[in-house]
Design goal:
Bound molecules: guanosine-5'-diphosphate, zinc ion
Helix content: 25-40%
CATH superfamily of the domain at 92-252: P-loop containing nucleotide triphosphate hydrolases
CATH architecture of the domain at 92-252: 3-Layer(aba) Sandwich
CATH topology of the domain at 92-252: Rossmann fold
Strand content: 15-25%
Mean pLDDT: 82
Strand order of the largest sheet: 10-9-8-11-13-12
Number of strands: 13
Structural class: alpha/beta
Low-confidence stretches: 221-238, 261-268
Length: 354
C-alpha cells in the first residue's frame, strides 16, 4: 500500500522534513492496544512500541501516539518497530478524561472531516448538532451534517428540518440519507475522497455502523484479512479503527461514540430525565421520595437501578435551582412592594400639595 492511500500528503511531507530525521520510516497509527500500536507503513502493518525517551518525556496523554497520528519509526524486522517521534497534529479530537479532572483524553488525530449523524425519527436536535459542530471547530475538523433514516418521515417534515438547520447553521453541507432504502448514499459519497480522513459522530442508534458499512463496507472485509499477533482472536473485527478505502479513510473507534457529550449540561439533563421519569411512577403525585410507600425512586435506589449518588446530585441541583428561582421570586415581590411604596409616596405628595 502506498503512503498516500492512508493519507500521506505534501503537508505531512513538509512537517516530516522539518524534523530532519530522514533515516526513519514514516507510518500512521491505525490502532492502539495498551502499550502497543499498529502502524501502517509502506512495508505493511507493523506492531510498534514507543521508545523509552518518548515515554519519559511524556507529561500528558497528549504526548503519546493516538490513532490517526503520523509517526517516525525505526523498523527492526517485518513486524517490529519503535516509535521515536509524533509528527505535529493537524487536528485532535479529545474528550474529558474519565476520573481525572481537567485532563483530556485524545480519541483520534489528523481527521479532515466529521460526518455528524442524526436520525430524523427521534434523534433530531439542533442544540446537540451545534455541540458537535463546536467540537469540530475546536478540534480543527470540518463538519458535514448527515440526516439519516429519512425513510421514517415524510418529505414535508424532512424539508422543515433542513430549513430549521439552515436558519441556524450556515455553510455546512447537509446530506439526507436512508441506509435502509439506500437513498442519498451516492450524493454523500461525493463528499468522500481518497486519501482524506473521516470520522462519524453521533448518538448511539443513529445508524453510524450501518453507514460505515454502506460507505466503506467492501474494504472492511479487506482489513479483516490482516493477521497480527495482537489482532488474533477477538480483536480482528472489533478493533478495525483506521479503515482505508478508495473512497477515503475512516477512523472508527469506540471512544468516538462518547465524544461530543463532554458538555456538563448534557450529563445533568440525562440524569434529570431518568429521575423525572421515575418520579412520575410514584404512587403519590406530591411524593417527596423520603419515606412514602410505592415510591419509584426509593425502589430504584433499593434495587440498584438508580444510584444513590446520582439521586443525591439531582436533589442538590434541584435545591440550587429552587433557591435560584425563589430568590428571583422574592426579588420580584420586593420590587413590587417598592413600586407600590413609590406610588404611595407620589400619591401622598400629590395630596399634600393641595
Ligand atoms: P449506531 O449505534 O449509530 O452505530 O447505529 P446502528 O448502525 O447500529 O443502527 C441502529 C439501528 O438503526 C439498527 O437497527 C439499524 O438497522 C437501524 N438503521 C440504520 N440506518 C437506518 C435507516 O436509514 N433507516 C431505518 N429505518 N433504520 C436504520
Ligand atoms: Zn417518590
Amino acid at each position: 500500500m502506498k503512503l498516500e492511500d492512508f493519507g500521506y500528503n505534501e503537508n505531512i511531507q513538509k512537517l516530516r522534513s522539518a524534523m530532519n530525521l530522514e533515516d526513519f520510516h514514516i507510518g500512521r497509527v491505525s490502532s492502539q492496544h495498551k502499550n502497543k500500536y499498529i502502524v501502517k507503513t509502506e512495508k505493511g502493518d507493523v506492531e510498534a512500541e514507543i521508545t523509552g525517551n518518548l515515554r519519559y518525556a511524556a507529561q500528558d496523554s497528549e504526548d503519546y501516539p493516538a490513532v490517526g497520528d503520523w509517526v517516525l519509526v525505526m523498523l527492526y524486522d517485518a513486524s517490529l518497530a519503535l516509535i521515536h517521534k509524533i509528527i505535529p497534529r493537524q487536528s485532535i479530537i479529545s474528550r474529558k478524561s474519565v476520573g481525572q479532572q481537567g485532563k483530556k483524553q485524545v480519541i483520534a488525530t489528523n481527521i479532515d472531516y466529521a460526518l455528524i449523524v442524526q436520525a430524523v425519527d427521534n434523534d433530531f436536535n439542533i442544540n446537540r448538532m451545534e455541540r458537535y459542530l463546536t467540537l469540530c471547530y475546536s478540534s480543527n475538523v470540518k463538519p458535514i451534517i448527515v440526516l439519516n433514516k429519512i425513510d421514517l418521515i415524510d418529505t414535508v417534515k424532512l424539508e422543515s428540518y433542513i430549513v430549521s438547520i439552515e436558519e441556524r447553521i450556515k455553510k455546512v453541507p447537509i446530506v439526507a440519507i436512508s441506509n435502509k432504502m439506500c437513498n442519498g448514499i451516492v450524493p454523500l459519497k461525493k463528499y468522500l475522497k481518497k486519501g482524506i480522513t473521516y470520522c462519524l459522530l453521533g448518538s448511539s442508534g443513529v445508524g453510524k455502523s450501518t453507514l460505515t458499512n454502506n460507505l466503506f463496507g467492501k474494504e472492511i472485509m479487506l482489513t479483516k484479512e490482516i493477521r497480527l499477533d495482537i489482532d488474533k482472536g477477538k480483536h480482528t473485527t472489533t478493533h478495525r479503527e483506521l479503515i482505508v478505502s478508495n473512497d477515503g479513510i475512516l477512523i472508527d473507534m469506540p471512544g468516538m461514540k462518547e465524544v461530543g457529550m463532554i458538555d456538563a449540561s448534557e450529563g445533568i439533563h440525562t440524569t434529570f430525565e431518568t429521575v423525572i421519569a421515575l418520579a412520575k411512577q410514584c404512587k403519590f403525585s406530591n411524593c417527596t421520595h423520603t419515606s412514602e410507600v410505592d415510591c419509584a425512586i426509593l425502589e430504584a435506589i433499593q434495587n440498584n437501578t438508580l444510584e444513590q449518588s446520582v439521586y443525591d446530585n439531582y436533589v442538590k441541583i434541584e435545591k440550587e435551582k429552587m433557591h435560584f428561582e425563589l430568590s428571583i421570586a422574592e426579588k420580584r415581590k420586593k420590587d413590587k412592594k417598592f413600586g407600590k411604596m413609590v406610588k404611595q409616596i407620589k400619591y401622598t405628595k400629590k395630596r399634600t400639595k393641595y
